[in-house]
Amino acid sequence: MTRATVVVILWIGLALGLSACLDFKQPSNKIEYYSLEYDPPPMRDLEPISNVIAVELFGVSPIYNTRKIIYRDKSFKRAAYDYHKWHANPGEFVSHFLARDLQRSHLFKAVVPRNRPFPGATVLGGSVDEFLEADMPAGWQAVLSLSIILIAEHEPDTAKKILFQKTYDIRKPCRRKNPRALAEAMSQAMSEASARIIRDVYKHLAQRQ
Fold it and tell me: Which of 205, 36, 173, 186 has its CA nearest to residue 105?
């Protein structure tokens, strides 16, 4: 074996060793996942009614129909974090927490998913119009905009099927400039939206008793 051959073999060995180090020793970029966390809003000042509510899966505006955390730092511009994501799609978040809060309010006879038909149930659906981090000069904000529609599905008169429609626009300041603070602020926004929606739904159904 010539000296040149030995040198080539050594270089190949060194290259393979470095490659192995890069593949297995270098830390990879870890994706962090975030959820909403808040207690169901209390509704102790209202008396239960006999309605059954069926909660639909909320639709989502195309810009926010993703598990990526979307942020706005300039006009007409939206961007997403590479290594920070939501645990679920915004529509899934809103539908889940709204159904949970309606159930925990103990104001209705039952709260069921839309895919489980229940005779005489009132359907609550809607859309997530905005679900983002707004990087404002005065600080970051969690922006949540929800549109809901309440439908008496088994009402024979088409003109009377739609009971109520409304949009809720809520902004909450982030305590810090990071995704964890955004998740905290978005949780506060969802809590407020949920409380307002429950009271409005209750009011319109109680009037029909």
Answer: 205
pLDDT digits (tens, 9 = 90+) for 84-103: 999 999 999 999 999 999 99
Q: Are 194 and 100 in contact (CB under 8 A)?
A: no
Burial 108-129 (b: 16+ CB within 10 A, else e): beebbebeeebeebbbbbbbbb
| pTM confidence score | 0.84
C-alpha to C-alpha distance for 90 and 68, rounded to whole angstroms: 10
Q: How far, in Å, CA of 184 to CA of 191, rounded?
A: 11
154 — phi, psi (to 5°)? -100, 15
What does DSSP assign to residue 121? Answer: P
Cα 129 to the center of its chain, rounded Å: 11
Q: Are strands 52-55 and 79-86 parallel, antiparallel or unpaired?
A: unpaired
